[in-house]
């Protein structure tokens, strides 16, 4: 059995992205969105579904971008939908994302998921079994070096994730540190160091 590790980060990998072409103009954009969502969400939770109208130089219709959290689920969805008519008279063309594909805009920098996406992902894979989170402590430390022009900010947070039905609890500690220099009369800042995040997970027995 293949094991896939899912990170709580925005999925930008090509193997998690599907491109759908040849969508007929027999439905409105909203109807196409609803039908595609109902189809692809059956294979797993979706991070993004975007429906766009074809360019003016192309025949009327739509194309869509679908992003999964899981590469395995994206691959399964592609295999089961490519070449199928589904909700229209002609077959759809469904392909995995590629850097050579003009509709695929990828970014190199990885970003963490928003809170709502984290909850959605956790609910799907952990189940709606009463899990909950609680912030135990939150600290805010300020340091000044070399006068008022240089400041160092440090935030610490301790979080508790619990599964009451299974009597399991996990603690997570995170530290965010940011250094910047104040310039200008309005106190605007130029970031001198990228934010460093360190997360350490401890499982309580």
TrEMBL record:
RRM domain ranges (all copies): 16-99
CDD domains: RRM_RDM1
Record keywords, A-Z: Cytoplasm, DNA-binding, Nucleus, RNA-binding
Pfam family, one: DSRM_RDM1
Compartment(s) of residence: Cytoplasm; Nucleus, Nucleolus
SUPFAM superfamilies: RNA-binding domain, RBD
Keyword Nucleotide-binding: no
GO MF annotation list: DNA binding; RNA binding
Cellular compartments per GO CC: cytoplasm; nucleolus
The UniProt record lists the keyword RNA-binding: yes
Record InterPro entries: DSRM_RDM1, Nucleotide-bd_a/b_plait_sf, RBD_domain_sf, RDM1, RDM1_RRM, RRM_dom
Subunit structure: Homodimer.
Protein's name according to its UniProt entry: RAD52 motif-containing protein 1
Species this chain originates from: Takifugu rubripes
């Amino acid at each position: 059995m293949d094991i896939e590790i899912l990170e709580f980060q925005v999925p930008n990998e090509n193997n998690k992205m599907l491109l759908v072409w040849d969508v007929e103009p027999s439905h409105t954009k909203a109807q196409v969105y609803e039908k595609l969502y109902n189809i692809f969400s059956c294979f797993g939770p979706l991070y993004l579904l975007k429906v766009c109208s074809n360019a003016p130089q192309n025949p009327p219709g739509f194309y869509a971008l679908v992003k999964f959290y899981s590469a395995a689920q994206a691959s399964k969805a592609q295999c089961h939908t490519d070449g199928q008519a589904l909700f229209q008279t002609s077959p759809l063309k469904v392909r995995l994302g590629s850097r050579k594909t003009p509709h695929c805009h990828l970014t190199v920098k990885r970003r963490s998921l928003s809170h709502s996406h984290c909850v959605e992902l956790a609910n799907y894979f952990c189940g709606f079994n009463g899990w909950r989170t609680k912030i135990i402590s939150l600290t805010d430390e300020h340091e000044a070096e070399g006068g008022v022009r240089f400041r160092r900010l440090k935030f610490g947070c301790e979080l508790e994730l619990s599964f009451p039905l299974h009597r399991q609890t996990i603690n997570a500690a995170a530290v965010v540190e940011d250094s910047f220099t104040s310039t200008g009369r309005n106190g605007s800042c130029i970031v001198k160091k990228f934010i460093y995040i360190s997360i350490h997970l401890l499982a309580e027995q």
